[in-house]
Amino acid sequence: MSRATSAAPQVVLLHPQDNVLISVMTLAADTQFTFAGREYRLAQAVPLGHKIARTDMPAGTRIFRYGAPIGSLYSAVKAGDWVHMHNLKSDYLASHTRKGRAQEGSGE
Q1: What is the pLDDT of residue 107?
Q2: 85/77 Cα distance (integer angstroms)
Q3: Phi then psi for 10, rounded to 5 degrees?
Q4: Inter-residue contact 89 to 95 (CB < 8 Å)
Q5: Prediction pTM value
Q6: Could you identify which of 4, 73, 77, 96 might form a hypothetical disulfide with 53, taking C-beta atoms 3.0 to 4.6 angstroms apart as the criterion?
Q7: What is the pLDDT of residues 34-46, one digit of tens each?
Q8: Neighbouring C-beta atoms of residue 6, cutoff 10 Å
Q9: What is the Cα–Cα distance from 52 to 100, expressed in whole angstroms?
Q10: pLDDT tens column, 39-81
Q11: Calpha distance 5→28 (Å, rounded)
Q12: What's the N-to-C CA distance of the chain in angstroms?
């Protein structure tokens, strides 16, 4: 069962060069919305303030937010996919993940 599309803005585009939209509220999986004439359906829930892919993008694509690169994709994403630490790495700073912390705690 899909969720109804709301007339209220659910996402914003911070800069015309950005290849991600930003959620303005927590959005449930299967939420549908239209932005700039394109229909999106979320495959997974997206928390408030998180990134959503504007288009299909292959692994290695640089992600732009505020018109500036913030990282690169580990894996391909489809339009409407959540873009976060599970598929995005910083090109500038070391990233810490829960998996990395779990390995530190196990003595490995």
Answers
A1: 45
A2: 13
A3: -110, -15
A4: yes
A5: 0.80
A6: 77
A7: 999 999 999 999 9
A8: 13
A9: 25
A10: 999 999 999 999 999 999 999 999 999 999 999 999 999 999 9
A11: 12
A12: 44
Burial of 37 (0-12, 13-18, 19+ CB in 10 A): exposed
From start to end of the chain, where are the E strands? 11-12, 20-23, 32-35, 38-41, 51-53, 62-65, 68-73, 82-83, 88-89
Token pair 């910083």 is found at 90
**H/E stretch holding 101:** helix 98-105
The residue assigned the tokens 């997974």 is 44
CA distance 76 to 47: 20
Q: Which amino acid is residue 98, in one-letter code?
A: R
pLDDT at 83 exceeding the cut of 60:
yes
Q: Which tokens in the block code for residue 75?
A: 């894996």
